[in-house]
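User: I need a structural model of Neutral ceramidase from Leptospira yanagawae for a docking pre-check later this week. Nothing fancy, just the predicted structure tokens so I can convert them on my end. Input:
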Amino acid sequence: MNSKMIPWVRVSVSIVSCLFLLVCSDKKSSQSNSALLSLVGANETQTTYENGSELLSNEGMGRVVAPSLGSSPYLIGVGIADITGPAAEVGMMGFAETAQKTEGIYMRLWSRAYIIGDVSKRVVFVSADLGMIFQSIKQAVSKKIATDSELAPFYSEANVLLSATHTHSGPGGYSHYFLYNATTSGFIKENFDVIVNGIYKSIKLAHQNLVPGNVYINQGELTDASKNRSVVAYDKNPISERNFYASNVDQTMTVLKLVAAEGRELGMVNWFAVHPTNVGPTNKLIGGDNKGLASYLFEKNKGTNYSANQTFVAAFAQSNSGDVTPNLWGPADAVNDYARQNIIADKQYQKAMSLYQSANTQVSGSVDFRHTYVNFSNLYVSSVGTTTCHAGMGASFSAGSVEDNAVSVDFFDEGTTVDSLDWNSNAADAFKASFLGGVLGVLWPSSVSESYKLCHAEKPVLIPTGVASFDGNPWTPPIIPLQIIKIGNLSILAIPAEVSTMAGRRIRSLVKNILENDYTVVAALSNSYTSYLTTREEYSSQQYEGASTQFGPHTLKAYEQEFGKLANALRNGTTVPSGPTPPDLTNFQVTFQTGVVFDDVPLFKSFGNVFTQPASTYASGAKVTAVFWGAHPKNNMLIGSSFVDIERQNGSSWTVVARDNDPSTTYKWQRDGIAYSKITTTWDTKSYPKGTYRIRHRGHWKSGWTGAITAYQGVTNNFTIQ
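Assistant: Understood. Predicted structure tokens for Neutral ceramidase:
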């Protein structure tokens, strides 16, 4: 989480809002690689797609019997599914900015699933265009798998790894823990369901697409797409350790190339550490940021058909990027965000494509996995002779990462430690800390106990998430999943946190030395979310990342201890305890966000009528805009479809050339009055051929009389690109 939330809002939402939480939408329907930044997409009655396909539904997913390996080392399957949540009036996840609520779509969000298996075992890796994978998501997906007779014999929570790209431009409200729903007016079931169903569908498709094949691996350095945003903390690490590395960020990209036995290219997945935060906290359009766009570019190069059940899938997965920013030019400024996103996306795309094309080292060896749950709230760490702490967020958490996206008002500065809160030299901060601590101490006395404060060492706890509760459940998860999946001589470490560069290096080195394998990658933000993970030295400086390391100064040592157990079990072929089962908090969820009451349009207007027509003629490269009378996108999120199509005339028929997933288009919703909705569609014509075009908008409106939801669509006048 990269914060740019007004600090007073962050604190008040996390404290006061919690108190508030727990005391307690009938009308007629009417009708860098610029060439890659424009494709695909639908006329409801006579649709022709540029790739020749039709939209496919879940009903098309028939039972498929997995083939035998034959002479190939692995079974390989890939799948992709839409997970784009509500495109209006839902708080976005990542910046914790209460004013940042969805108002449309720049690009859709996707779940990309990969299954690799040998003769005896299989593993699943999913990279999802989400801010985080919360424990609620892993639990719900695991339940769906367990009740699916086709999937249950092969997959469970133990061998399924769910990882988030960490885009900050997606809707939130899908955690079961209070802290992460505080800025979204609580739990948003519509978004939760879309995410769970989409991830499940992508896994199902990957399973049904299993074929014998080979996995190739390649690595290379990408040196100009990231920088360290917390140098003060990084430089606290021992100089001998820092000198061992060429940079203060991990610049290695690891690429897997998946190829069927007959030579058909199936997919690509890579891991590279960089935050997807080029698009800043003023943005209100859904999108995947630099990693989502990089995936789009790669997939368009490979002819991906997003409507097909079987197609090429390319994931740009997340790694140890906790202190790594893509904002080489300084914080996002709301002016150049998308242009800078395009640059960082293109750099990742170009490097990944180069490594993919030259990948000739074959992955070999068995497939295996280990998974366990560990209670980190009071875990004894033998290497330091003490325990971790009940979770707490430090004072510097309220500052956000000022190097990445500065807060508008200071509450506490980064670097605020227990020692810096001195009444003589820093009376203002000392007062704020004392006042808040006193309030919280009345509610939760253990939050001001000496043992709790001493456990967190340099961190002055601002929000005691591990002890604060009204319903018996803490505000962040104490029991977390740890997992290693092994594909031949590659190991993937699933860490449920944003991992700093050096913390990732240490865990990776530990596991690699135990398993003696050739390749080890960190898959951060996986299976659950517990904010950040830093080294002990970085923690001592209490920058934003250290203040967000929830379980205290020895959190990394605890991770090393537990990952060492998993790695040793893999090496020795032994089992590990499943650990304590985290509770399912489904029935504890609360929301203050209302649904759509009804939709309406002005007198003598119909849903889909065009309010503002495009001009009749545009020069090539111009932007085309049209405005429709529409309805609230929450009525139907059009999963697997599109709110906007750009159609090109071909004789007597029309071909869809772009949809709302394409970065050449934007779909923007705006409330007009009480129940009216205006839909603004924009299309960048750059790289599209000259010709005659039109814009189609589709949606669904809700009757205020019956509650019935009805589809509508509208189309503009024709216009030409010259």
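Before docking, keep this in mind: The first strand starts at residue 48 and ends at 49.
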